[in-house]
Amino acid sequence: MIGVGIAHGAITFLNALPTGIGAAAGIELPATATVELRDAEARTIEVHAESDSPLVVASAEAALQAWAPDRPLRAQVRVRSEVPVAKGLKSSSAVGTAVVRAVAAGLGVVPPDDHVASIAADVAQRIGLSATGAFDDALASIEPGVQVTDNPARKRIRTDPVDPAWAVVIWVPEGLHAPSATVRERFATAAPDAAAAEAAARRGDPLAAMTLNTAIVERIMGYEYGAIRAQLRAAGALGAGVSGMGPALAAIARPADCDAVRQTFPTGEGSVVITRFVRAAPTPTGGTG
């Protein structure tokens, strides 16, 4: 039995660390997991060397426990991802949900997106990759639209379609962010400041949420992006902000303005990616083989 699961990276409109409420939307940077399942004497999970990580193993184990708890299976897993790691573009959520969906597909199960996202969030929180579980990121990785969620409760608050006229220009500088659990307390002190950003996300105004949110993230993480964001707006960006805990900085723009926005980012420092928001949810595939 072979199952294939596809998920995507995402960008942040509201970081969930201050209040537990987060907002994110998927972008067209895919992660694909392939899982081959065979009956065995005992459950084993084997991960291809280039894909091996605690996240992949734990995600496969959690999916097997969810849909085949008493069935001894040998699972062979391979993951390919185009999402930059530890840059704030939701690489962990994309990989986790892709693996969970692949296992489900291999078992012939078609679970609701919320269930897949909840399993992935539980895994990310349990192994220390995310302080809140990043339910918003997990949901955004497999379902189009801006996902506003209550992360501790694993509850969807609202989903809004992304304006089809929006594109995304992302600056990915050098450097990595630490797991969110290591800075959770610092973000918790910003809860009062995050109230306005949360209110914007709850009323369906992601650009306002992004602007308010990024001021908090930049202050706590020490990024000095204020001047760049002002230049991006002058170049035509509709909004710009730190994605996740950075260091990636994402700008929302109309396609006609993307080149001007791209040229505004610092040259020779990292890379710039121009992409789109996910328009349709990827469909997992499975079969016998």
Précis, in short:
The protein is of the alpha+beta class and 289 residues long.
Describe this structure in words.
This protein has about 290 residues and is of the alpha+beta class. The chain folds into two domains: about 1-160, Ribosomal Protein S5, domain 2 (2-Layer Sandwich), CATH 3.30.230; about 165-275, 2-Layer Sandwich (Alpha-Beta Plaits), CATH 3.30.70. The chain has helices at about 55-65, 90-105, 115-125, 135-140, 185-190, 195-200, 205-220, 225-235, 260-265; strands spanning about 1-15, 20-40, 45, 75-80, 145-150, 155-160, 165-170, 240, 250-255, 270-275, 285. Strand 8 and strand 9 form a beta hairpin. Helix 1 packs parallel to helix 2, helix 2 (about 90-105) packs across helix 4 (about 135-140) and helix 3 (about 115-125) crosses helix 4. The mean pLDDT is about 95.
